[in-house]
Amino acid sequence: MSKNKQQINPDLEEYTKEQLASRKNFSLKRLFNYAIVHWPWFILSFLLIVLTTASTLIQPRIIQVLIDKDISILISDYESQVVKDIALISGAKKALFYLFTVIITFIGTYLQAYILNSTGQKILLNIRQNLYEHILKLPVSFFDRYPIGSLVTRVTNDTETLNEMFTSVFSSVLRNAFTLVGIIISMFLLDVKIAIRILVVLPILIIISLVFRNVMQKIYFAQRRLLSIINTKLSENISGMRTIQIFNQEKQISEEFDEVNQEYLILSEKEVRNFAIYRPAIEMIRSFVIAALLWFGGLRNLEGVLTFGILNAFIDYIQRFFNPILELAETYNIIQSAVTSTSRIFHLLDEPEETSGGKIAIPDKTLRGEIEFKNVWFAYNDSEWILKDVSFKIEAGQFVAFVGATGAGKSTIMNLLMRFYDIQKGQILLDGRDIKKYKITDLRQSIGVVQQDVFLYSGLVIDNITLKRENVSSRDGRKAAEIVNANSFICELPNQYNQHITERGSTLSVGERQLLSFARTLATKPTLLILDEATANIDTETEALIQDAIRNMANKRTMLAVAHRISTIADADKIIVLHKGRIAEQGTKDELLAHAGLFSILYKLQYERTE
Amino acid sequence: MNEYRTIIPFIKENRWRYFWGILALCIVDIASLLVPQVIKRFADLAQFNQLTKTNIFESIFWIIGLGIIVATGRYGWRINIFGTARKLEYWLRSKLFNHYLRMDDSFYTDHRTGDLMAHVSNDVLMVRNSMGGGIIMIFDALFMTFFTIFMMISTVGLKIALIALSALPFLALTVFLMAKPLRERSREVQDTFSELTNEVQENISGIHNIKAFSIENNRAKSFLKINKLYQSKNINLVKLSAAFDPLITLIAGIAFVIFIIFGLRELMTNNITIGDFVAVIQYVGIMIWPMIALGMVVNTFQRGIAGMTRINEILAIKSKINESEEPIPLNKDKIEIEFKNVSFRYSQDLPYVLKNVSFQIKDGQTFAILGATGAGKSTILNLLLRRYDVTAGNIYINNIDIRDLSFEDLYQAIALVEQESFLFSRTIAGNIAFQAQSEIELARIRRSAKFAQIDQEIMEMPEQYETWVGERGVTLSGGQKQRISIARAHYQTAKVLVLDDALSAVDTNTEHHFLNQIKDLKSTLLIVSQRISTVKDADQIIVIQEGKIIQHGNHESLLREADSFYAKLHERQLLESQLNRNNSSS
């Protein structure tokens, strides 16, 4: 097989900043489309965020009024006991109101988090399902060039990263923005002059945060790149460990790995250092602001224009003022990785799906099974022709064998018949109609294939036969197993048809797996049967069982077989000898024997020996 | 915590950094807890109208002074503790990887690549987080709690402090009670996530099968089931986890209100000043964080311990193949190989894969091993290359048991070309020479490439020998890969060349050419093949079936044994060789 697979590694795709920006807007818009259906929930959490932010922000204000109105009376030496008692009661009322805001905050925060998370989960469920179903519908050629690992990452980890987008990012951005605005408004309500003076630091904070963000963005970008190199190296070296050891390369490889590992460490330390500067810098500004507050507030208090309650409330607001800014800076990082995941997901969703074929349906058992290849040319890659001008005709009910060396194009013919790939030139006809005119699912369901490699799902034996297809009951499955003589070994399994099997570390032998594959295919009694080297690598005993099975069902069925063994081929109605993408010989056994070609030499050799 | 024994050497080495980091953390905590004291004094002065410019200055001096201490301290602990945690990440990653480099083949059959990678990435990350953020949170939470309590008592006396602290036991209880169900639910989420991953992995691997049977819809349904399960497990977790922070805030808020109501009376009776009142309010606010942190600490360390346990398990595995401590030096000018009554099985409860196999290969001979898939051909090579050690019998090279040879001598004596040759993502030159870029000699590489008949094709590539192979570069065809790996083996200039079904992707002509060239090298050649054409010129051929040698001789003698495995195989392959002969004549 010289299928020159041009593999791409989507994890290593490195975007330029501009590409990232243009893609970001686009994919975020599409992400938004997934979210918009749930708008009532988003509105509700929006309202809850407003409510909880307001109730949190009102708390310092309550304390301020409490201090200035009630406590100042309570501690005054000049007020009467009656006034003090009234103040005590009004203070207690304020305390209860405070309690009320605490409870509101609790309920609001919880509900908001719950609603956002469960809505986020609903959206993710949809995205994951859409993505997965989309992948299943991609054409076979797509899987030749896209590594499986990356596809798995798209469906699992990337959607997981998106979760953050709907939950923490949404609530954090809103809450922090509201808090910031709320605090600013509250400060203005308390004292305009002081508020204005404090707000002078805001631009400084924003500039520092922006600079920090830019530095961190570069570091994170480099980190992600290095991390993906580390992972690639790891996976490669683990897979190639045998080669490394046999070629005495442990030291060399270890040094190479250490190089990246160290590079990553250096970046990590840079990241730590940046945070270690940014966070304290903000702290420092906070201290300066509080100091400034004490200075202005103290002076104004001296002048008697500012109560201590207000000053205290300012101190409280200042403490809260810095947190939203710090948190917004961190949110930005989450947004970054979510954006990367989003664009990867939508990039994959944009891959064109496989055609669904034509409009013609193939109702059950109506296919005659007549096949014709008319001057078919085909290449996996544009340049290398795998099939060159191949023409042949197979009548309904015939048994045709394909013979040829590895890479001659035998398996390709089978792939084309199933429409795994489309041909470049020529025509493939089924019952006289171009196969492109049939619905692709109908086409594939009417053709039964047994391949050399058997794919088993982890699950029960019976499910591996029925594949949970709607048109295959478990009775059909058992019957099929009996027909192909798989019944005997299945019944020896501890749980028989309910035995759990796995794809790896399977307890079944290659031959047994092959029998299961036969049962799986024959369960629907397809009109057209393709055996693609289905009996290769099997011991003679198993082969005899399978031969039996074929004889039990081959009558009145069109059967195409790719095989090396003359014994299998000998019964064929027609033998097609392929060589380097062309048909070297074709005809019935007798015809081929008569014209003294390759087949006749071989046949005679074998025939004489067995005589 | 015993799990952390593996990293004790690292911690010892970095103990001063941890010490300074924790010290800085304590200083930061003390300094930030003194801030409310400054404000309290300020408030008291304001209350009694004793505020003057001088004491305003004094307060400002304290605030800025404490601010500077907090900022420098924070820088100190971040650099020391977070920085060290990153070093630990590097240290552990490197330790694991170097461990992997020493592991034998059976280790790699027992462990999946994905899992081995997860240890190096996720598990290391969890340990890193526990030794960075985790350590900080523990010390921060404990120190803060105790110091806040101390400050409260010293500010307002035990009685009032106790009222303000009434919430503490409830907070602790909440953290304690919620930890277990939270852990269980998040474990369920993780388990379901790996089930989901498996489902995706398995189905995408079987995509050809899904398409052939046109069962996309029922695979989608099957995925929907697990997808929904995952969603419900997540929501189940959120129900609880979303309550954690608000609950802590709620309890602290209630305590706060109780303190206000109580404090009003105390204020009225002048038991406390307004400054005390304000300070305690701030202290109650400060208490919330350590409580949340305690909840996070439990989680972080649980993950850290889980990661550490998995890493320990891997590190505890010893390679079954060990190099001799006092190896006998090998003369590599002349190599003779002998298998003497070699038997092998993978483990005691598995059947023998090789049974009593004996043969001798003279220096310069061509020796071929033939047999069906699973007969034991590759096992013979694996034993010779010490991928596994024999169960019984001996393998000698120049009459020295191979277990007495150093790995270096053994692998320098033998060069291997595998059926599925593994190429690394580096340049073609780097793949052939398999050396650091600086040490590569292009002339020698090209000689090897010419030998493997790939030089011309490489020179036609735009970047020639600098062409990058693999995921980020050009993808080579199976035949090109095999020839590059032949060049790689040739480059080693080993006395013994082993071809493990290595010529299957090249046509018979090229194959024939190679075999002739190899003869000119005068090296000992060991060929494993399923093709008669490959082995027919060998000096000795053995046929292996079910782990036993069933035929031993040369092409002519083996063909004469009528109805033998060799004779039958010869017939079966006639068709293919006919076709190829046809090709070469046309």
Q: Can you describe this structure?
A:
The complex is a heterodimer of chains A (611) and B (586). Chain A has 611 residues and is an alpha/beta fold. Chain A has helices spanning 17-36, 39-74, 81-136, 140-145, 148-190, 192-199, 201-239, 241-246, 250-302, 308-349, 410-417, 440-446, 461-466, 474-483, 487-492, 510-522, 540-553, 566-569, 589-594, 598-610, and strands at 371-378, 387-394, 399-403, 425-430, 433-434, 447-450, 459-460, 500-501, 528-532, 558-562, 574-579, 582-587. Chain A has a six-stranded mixed β-sheet with strand order 6-9-10-3-11-12. In chain A, strand 1 and strand 2 (387-394) form a beta hairpin. The longest helix of chain A has 56 residues, at 81-136. Chain A is elongated, with a radius of gyration of 37 Å. In chain B, the strands form two sheets. In chain B, strands 6-7-8-3-9-10 form a six-stranded mixed β-sheet, with helices on both faces. Chain B has a four-stranded antiparallel β-sheet with strand order 2-1-4-5, with helices on one face. Chain B contains 20 helices and ten strands. Chain B has two domains: 7-315, ABC transporter type 1, transmembrane domain (ABC transporter transmembrane region fold, Up-down Bundle); 337-561, Rossmann fold, CATH 3.40.50. The mean pLDDT of chain B is 81. In chain B, helix 3 (53-102) runs antiparallel to helix 5 and helix 6 runs antiparallel to helix 8 (216-268). Chain B has 586 residues and is an alpha/beta fold. Chains A and B meet through helix 2, helix 3, helix 5, helix 7 and helix 8 of A and helix 2, helix 3, helix 5, helix 6 and helix 7 of B.
